[in-house]
Structures are given as C-alpha cells and as structure tokens.
Specification:
The protein is 64% helix and 4% strand. It has 5 helices and 2 strands; from the N terminus they run αβααβαα. The chain is mainly alpha-helical. The chain has a two-stranded parallel sheet with strand order 1-2.
C-alpha cells in the first residue's frame, strides 16, 4: 500500500513537471483522477500526508465522488471570469462612448458660438451699412441721380443658440473631455 501511495505521489510530481497551468485559460492546478475511492482511501491511510504533498505540487486529487463537484466549481469559476471580462469590456466601451459624447458636445458648443459670432458679424455689417453707407448712397438720389429702385431696409437677425438643458451637457467643460480624442 505504501508503494501504491508512493506511485501516486510520483505521478503528482510528474504532473507538476508538465505544468499544464501554462496553457491559455488553464487553472493554476492539475487534477489527478483516481477512478477508485477505495484505492485512494488505502493510499491516504498508508501515507496520511499524501493530499497535502499533492497540493504542494499544484495537483488536486479527484475521485468519482469529488470529480463532479470539482468540475462544477471550475465551470463556475470560468463563468465568473468570463462575466468579469465582459463587465470590463462594457466599462471600457462605456468610457469610450462617454468621451465621444463629450467631444460631440464640444463641437455643439463651438458651432453655437460660431453661429452667434456670425449673427453678430451680420448685424454689425448691417448696422455699418445702414448708418454709414446707405445715407451716403441716398445723397446721390438727392443730387438728381436717377434710379429705378429704392434701398431696402436692413433688419437685424435675432439669433440665440439653444442652450443645452441637461446638467451633463450644459457643463461639458467640467466633465474633463479630452480634445485629443479622435473625431469619429
């Protein structure tokens, strides 16, 4: 029985040497399956430290009774790892979307400022035209220059950019969006 226990331990050392944990997605231990409960029990009775010695080799001993529970635990661990990876991807994609929305808001604010500036320039132009140029042009008519058309009145443009209503959108500068983000 001691020789049997020794062979089990030697096999555990051989499994450690093979180091299956280096493979992608592999757990950090190897399972050594013993198909007989009684064979394992007699090995442990003749060498009580066998389980701990195998664990030091990163080898978990499984029998028909424990194998199903071990496989379910490993499956559960892999599912949790997959969920964690998916959650990380969702978090990464969410951060990217958040930054892109911030960049879009920056463009919206720039466009609104440009439209305000264009409206203001239009009104300044119209004011100068109306106050300085048109009075001089009308004097030509007073001097007898014949025209077939009167000068039209110039109305100023009233433009007010629609302010963003949402707190997140209205304070885009405070959100810390990066100008280095690529336009998408």
């Amino acid at each position: 029985f001691r020789a049997h226990a020794g062979r089990l331990y030697d096999h555990a050392k051989e499994l450690k040497r093979r180091d299956y944990s280096k493979r992608d997605g592999a757990p950090d231990f190897t399972v050594m399956f013993i198909p007989s409960e009684s064979a394992f029990r007699t090995a442990v009775e003749s060498r009580p430290s066998l389980i701990e010695e195998c664990m030091e080799c990163n080898v978990v001993v499984a029998t028909p009774t424990t194998l199903l529970a071990l496989l379910r635990a490993v499956n559960y661990g892999w599912r949790q790892e997959k969920l964690a990876r998916l959650a990380h991807e969702v978090q990464k994609d969410g951060a990217e979307l958040y930054n892109r929305i911030g960049k879009l808001i920056d463009h919206y604010v720039k466009l609104g400022n440009a439209l305000k500036s264009a409206g203001s320039a239009y009104n300044d132009f119209g004011g100068t035209l109306e106050a300085r140029v048109l009075p001089a042009a009308r004097r030509f008519k007073e001097h007898g220059v014949q025209t077939n058309k009167d000068m039209a009145a110039i109305d100023p443009i009233e433009f007010e950019a629609r302010p963003l209503q949402s707190n997140e959108l209205a304070h885009s500068a405070a959100l810390g969006f990066s100008d280095q983000e690529e336009d998408e």
